[in-house]
Amino acid sequence: MADVHVTAVCGSLREASTTRAALERVLEAAERGGATTELLDLREFELPTFDADRDREDAGDAEELATRLREADAIVLGSPMYHGSYSSPLKTALDYCGFDEFRDKTVGLLAVSGGAFPVTALEHMRSVCRALNAWVIPHEAAVPNSHSAIEDGAFVDEKLEERVATLGRRAVQYATIEPDPDSFQSDQNVGAEGK
């Protein structure tokens, strides 16, 4: 698995982001599994609100983001749960991508919530990934009650930390899976062609 490259995308813009801390744990586990890793922190990208009439090359750092996602063997998306879904920075980043970045790619999902289990954020990210014909890892990681689950960037609960680390191991394990057939959702996603 030495040739596997895992890229995580942090959909939180907070300075002291628990989503970022959790993704760092995912990537540590992926590195221990033999992969090279990269964290794409959306705070470092200029991504204007998506406009279908604007070419990606003319949309700030959208082309750079898409290029780095294309180069990954597996992608892990991480987001805080906002209003029952995932964050708008992550939505904007994904809107600049299409089949070229996600088709047949292994994708892991992680959601963080200040309150209860962030099920709907995970479901919404899964739906987007399936529409882009990605192969979504069945194991997903959720960090509920994040302000007490992670303190000073470290997990308090070992079982929760292990669940998050497992996502990193699965990203490496399934990075070269060959999914078949295309998803029903992707067949209907005409907007994802030729991004």
Task: Please describe what this structure looks like.
The chain has a single domain (5-185), classed as Rossmann fold, CATH 3.40.50.360. The chain is 37% helix and 18% strand. The protein has 8 helices and 8 strands. It has helices spanning 18-32, 62-70, 88-95, 99-102, 119-131, 146-149, 158-173, 184-187; strands at 5-10, 36-41, 74-80, 106-112, 135-136, 141-143, 150-151, 154-155. The strands form 2 sheets. Strands 1, 2, 3, 4, 5 and 6 form a 6-stranded parallel beta sheet that branches. Strand 7 and strand 8 form a beta hairpin. The model has no long low-confidence stretch (mean pLDDT 93).
Detail the topology: elements first, then pairings.
Layout: E1 5-10, H1 18-32, E2 36-41, H2 62-70, E3 74-80, H3 88-95, H4 99-102, E4 106-112, H5 119-131, E5 135-136, E6 141-143, H6 146-149, E7 150-151, E8 154-155, H7 158-173, H8 184-187
Parallel strand pairs: 1-2, 1-3, 3-4, 4-5, 4-6
Antiparallel strand pairs: 7-8
Helix pairs in contact: 1-7
- Total beta strands: 8
Helix run count: 8
- Beta content comes to 15-25%
Helix content: 25-40%
CATH fold-level assignment: Rossmann fold
Could you list the spans in which at least 5 consecutive residues all have pLDDT below 50?
none
Largest sheet, described in full? 6 strands, parallel
Mean model confidence by pLDDT: 93
Query: Structural class from helices and strands?
Result: alpha/beta
